[in-house]
Amino acid sequence: MRDVVEQLQRLGMSGYEAKAYVTLVVAGQPLNGYEVAKRSGVPRSTVYETLGKLVAKGAAYELRGSEEAVVYLPLPPRSLLERMRREFDDSIESLQTSLPTIVAPPGAPIIHNLKGTEAVLARAEDVVAAARADLFLSIWPQEMKQLSPLVGRAAERGVEVSVVHFGPAETRIGYLYERHFPVPNAIADNLDCSLLVVVGDGSEVLIGGFANGSAWGVYTEDPAVVTMSVEYIKHDIALQVIADRIGHGTFADLWGNDPELVRLRASHGHPADLLRAVGMSDH
């Protein structure tokens, strides 16, 4: 009986209602309020209120005798369960239409501005540690030295790791591509900083800049920024693969002399200025 009472509670009856209904079913004959209270354990002070609620729900009926004595009969269990099933199905059908209409619109994507080497690298570690499917990194040796243990563990747990590493790498993890074109020092000079980009599971990205002992950065879950960051790293990987295919000499000549490529590299210091502005922001 305890199990039946618990199941009825799960279907919406109160504890007292469930006990009173089960008592009526077990009795097999009409009972008055006093008898229901005595057999069920429902307090006499609340038994008539409880029975009234069962009647209101259609789970019990009132029978009045010739002397106006009131007794109660339960709705047969099979009928009760069928009624509950219909009501439950009706509620689900109604909610399928109404519930989606009250869902709050998506909030603005999370964005954190970061200042200082420790803060930037700590957030990068968070992204690496949380990855479960894939990681994309664009990284320099100094930052790789700190992040490589976590990146290695990510690879060990099955994360697909793709790394663009500026210059020779001491440790090779996952799919690692050493970027040689243009020369890493020339890249840093052109940007006026070294960039760190870490993307985890296509859902979050840390972008940082390091220069002269200072660091600035931003963390965000904005899908547009995350997608652009992944494509940025894939673009760099593609450049290194192409250089390997066509020959480094040919690629270096093209990179250094093609007027369109020279024009695209003419934004000296601009990325560093943008990151500094982010790091100084209070938002």
Automatic annotation (TrEMBL):
Record-linked InterPro entries: TrmB-like, Tscrpt_reg_TrmB_C, Tscrpt_reg_TrmB_N, WH-like_DNA-bd_sf, WH_DNA-bd_sf
Domain Transcription regulator TrmB N-terminal: 8-77
Coiled coil: none
Domain Transcription regulator TrmB C-terminal: 113-172
Pfam family name, one: Regulator_TrmB
Name the UniProt record assigns to this protein: Sugar-specific transcriptional regulator TrmB
Organism expressing this protein natively: Streptosporangium saharense
